[in-house]
Amino acid sequence: MFKKLLNGELSLREAFWKFGVLGLIICNIIFRISQKLLAPRLQGYTIRDYYSKHFSFVTLDGYMLSVTLFYLFAMVLLISYCIIIVMGVWRSAAEYNKSIWLRQLSRILILIFVFISLRGFIP
Description:
elongated, mainly alpha, single chain
């Protein structure tokens, strides 16, 4: 299914609503859950400060290791999904011939949704 999405073989409606909107919501929920699980263990630091200045493998317990790995997995999932969905919707919009307005609107909206999804990485 992702191969069809990447090649632009899905309809614009399916690519935008199913994979774009719904898929980004699911990926965002997973990423936010990983942030919430990590937050109590950060001791008041931001995620960037904790991992760049205070993180140590010597004092790492099992829970923190699993939460860290889950956070990294969720971060990679969200970033890669955003790249895939932009490419897929962009290509599906190129194949859409019914309305140039809907074609361009879907491209603009998916970029806005991806920006909103990735703003959690900006401190």
